[in-house]
Amino acid sequence: MPSKYKRILLKLSGEALMGDRGYGIDPETVDYMSHEVRSVAKLGVEIAVVIGGGNIFRGVEASVEGIERASADYMGMLATVINALALQNSLERHKIPTRVQSAIEMRELAEPYIRRKAVRHLEKKRIVIFAAGTGNPYFTTDTAAALRAMEIGADVILKGTKVNGVYSADPVKNPDAKRFKNIKYIDVLKKGIAVMDSTAISLCMDNSLPIIVYNMRKKGNLKKIIEGKRIGTIVGG
What is the pTM of this model? Predict the structure, then answer.
């Protein structure tokens, strides 16, 4: 089946890599994510990935507990580099060529982020993992995902979560929460729905970049979306 999208940006939270553990990286979960990405790469889709660092360190929470905010955010950026290297290692064990580009220079571990080079990697069907967020404190990895998606000309942002899409309330806490099939950017902002942070949503709205929020824990969901099937919630319009 032909793919609906030529180039995608996959946004994963750091928590996505810890599986059912309370902290750190679960190798089985990372391997599962690699299989999901590999199934899409086989369709010829160009894939970029942005990973958070919340499974290792959360800058916002740390700043509340007494660490100066900018320093805490830089620590969080370094946590995303650890996650990026873990995913790269797993993908390359599955014979998928991968490059990590970091917004904070660390040449021994990753390439510096250069937009044209990233696009060239994608054209050569290498998976590009963007690490260290935007390289600036006070910006989340959600905003980094939106920014990088614009820069590389992605067709869509796919946000992998633990639930089946965007709900009117937390479906874990409220069984009566309604799932949206489609929701407009402005409604996400007005209602304060936790899809991505407001800066990321505004950036996507200004540039008409759709976001699909889906359950990454269901095997095959990523491939189904790429094939054009209706999975999760589409944020747009």
Answer: 0.94
